[in-house]
Design goal:
Number of strands: 0
Helix content: over 70%
Number of domains: 1
Order of helices and strands: HHHHHHHHHHHHHH
Family: Belongs to the binding-protein-dependent transport system permease family. FecCD subfamily.
Distance between the termini: 22 Å
GO molecular function: transmembrane transporter activity
Number of helices: 14
Oligomer: single chain
Shape: globular
InterPro entries: ABC_BtuC-like (IPR037294), ABC_transptr_permease_BtuC (IPR000522)
CATH superfamily: ABC transporter involved in vitamin B12 uptake, BtuC
Largest sheet: none
Membrane topology: Multi-pass membrane protein
Protein name: ABC-type Fe3+-siderophore transport system, permease component
Length: 333
């Protein structure tokens, strides 16, 4: 409970900074007044309600989706280095968005949602179909290999498509950098149902994931239906990652680093193994903390230019992840 409470406090603090800091810094008392409706300055109201509130809400939604899907994916594959890119979900979304831009002329972020989500759906189905081939059925190793192969294939086709269409290259380059600056309130009603269903599927997987952590044979002995658990988890990953990527682009490292931090917190209090009933909610809370922190830093690190949150997450997350990967305990998931 202490870890969960600390994560909630951290998220609230980051949200306050997200509403206050930017090209125009707004004092906290004016932020509170704008939210309460007691401020009459129209410029302040416009900045808070038209720009920063939607941007912060989309950041919370996308960060929670990425953190939760990363934790779920690592638990399903029992691979602490797994991330949404491994299973081809991000590559499928990117490929579909490029098609939407180049073939159908989609330009607004709200239009990316359906293409990115469809791409994530198709890529996930292909990966799981490939991983299920063979005598032994689906295994974590086959799932990862199928995902990597699909990712490379889709990335190659996407690059080839973009290179022959300069207009697509320009629009795709901004989206693929991962930014919350274009996030508007119109995205929320489109994304919320998918994220809600994905989160519900993921959070209800907690007890089964605790059994899977003991090995497939032990999990079967405990009465778990392994295939059904993995199928439900895959559906949750598809919904969560597809929605997040559609909104802000293929941001990396949120789904990698956040589950590790959540796992460390969930192992506190003398527990030797993380309880996924605690780990998954923690990942959903810590994901927005990381994404919104990167977004706020991107606004103030090189004014008046805004640096995309995806670039800052990669800049910080890359070295951090290398350090984590070299630790022996990381391989003991």
């Amino acid at each position: 409970m202490k870890a969960t409470a600390a994560a909630v406090v951290a998220l609230l603090a980051v949200c306050v900074l997200s509403l206050s800091l930017g090209a125009r810094a707004i004092p906290l008392d004016q932020v509170a007044g704008a939210l309460a409706g007691t401020v009459t300055d129209q410029d302040v109201l416009d900045v808070i309600w038209s720009v920063r509130v939607p941007r912060t809400l989309v950041g919370i939604l996308a960060g929670a989706a990425l953190g939760l899907s990363g934790a779920l994916m690592q638990a399903l594959t029992r691979n602490p280095l797994a991330d949404p890119g491994v299973l081809g979900v991000s590559a499928g979304s990117a490929f579909a968005v490029v098609l939407g831009i180049g073939v159908f002329g989609v330009a607004a972020p709200a239009g990316f949602v359906w293409f990115a989500f469809a791409g994530a759906l198709v890529a996930s189905v292909v990966v799981y179909a490939l991983a299920g081939l063979g005598r032994d059925g689906m295994t974590p190793l086959k799932l990862a290999l199928a995902g990597v192969a699909t990712t490379f294939l889709l990335s190659s086709v996407t690059s080839a498509f973009v290179l022959v269409d300069p207009e697509s290259l320009s629009r795709y380059r901004f989206w693929s950098a991962g930014s919350l600056s274009g996030a508007g309130g119109e995205l929320l009603p489109q994304l919320l149902p998918f994220v809600a269903v994905g989160a519900l599927l993921a959070l209800t997987c907690g007890p089964a994931l605790n059994s899977l952590a003991l090995g497939d044979d032990v999990a079967r002995g405990l009465g778990r239906r392994i295939g059904l658990v993995r199928l439900r988890g895959a559906a949750a990953v598809m919904l969560l990652t597809g929605s997040a990527v559609a909104a802000i682009g293929p941001v990396v490292f949120v789904g990698l680093v956040v589950p590790y931090v959540a796992r460390a917190l969930a192992r506190g209090g003398g527990r030797s193994e993380a309880d996924h009933r605690l780990l998954l909610p923690l990942a959903a809370l810590l994901g927005p903390c990381l994404l919104l922190t990167a977004d706020v830093l991107g606004r103030v690190v090189a004014p008046p230019i805004e640096v995309q949150a995806g670039l800052l997450v990669a800049f910080v997350g890359g070295p951090f992840f290398v350090v984590l990967a070299r630790r022996r305990r990381l391989a003991e998931l």
